[in-house]
Amino acid sequence: MSINATLLAQMLVFALLVWFTMSLVWPMLLKQMQLREARIADGLAAAEKGKRSLEEAHEKSSELLHDGREKAQEFVAQAQKRGDDIIEEAKLQAREEGNRLIELARSQIEQERNLAREELRGEVASLALKGAEQILLREVNAQIHSESLEKLAAEL
């Protein structure tokens, strides 16, 4: 065989190989490459979507954390205010109770003072009777002279 025939046969076999590859193998390779490209694009889109979701979740969590801190500060402020109100209320009640006890003590002192005055009047009247008895050198009857003794006690 000559070199031309061999070259021609090789060219024919190469052309058949190219035709076979282009008609049968190449479409399958292109299809697989397109599927892989689509999967990669879907994966990149999903990654981008996941990244956005993660950023949104971070934003939402930081917003919720900020809201939670604000609410906690509000609760603390309300509790502090309520505590102050309770303290003021207790102070007011203590003052009222103290004033009530002072008034009660004053009324008891006034009663005891009046009782002491009455006792002193009685003792003074008794002493006056004894003095009058000694002056008159006779016994004065307290029942008979009770009206006079009451006037004397009232004057004292």
Please provide a brief summary of the model:
This protein has 2 helices and no strands. With 156 residues, the chain is mostly helical.
Describe this structure in words.
The model has no long low-confidence stretch (mean pLDDT 86). The protein starts with a helix and ends with a helix. 92% of the residues lie in helices and 0% in strands. The chain contains two helices and no strands. It is mainly alpha-helical.
Count of β-strands: 0
Q: Report the portion of residues in β strands.
A: under 5%
How would you sum up the global shape? rod-shaped
Query: What structural class do helix, strand and pairing data support?
Result: mainly alpha
The whole-number mean of residue pLDDT values reads: 86
> What ranges have pLDDT less than 50 throughout 5 or more consecutive residues?
none
Roughly how many Å is the radius of gyration? 60 Å
Helix content: over 70%
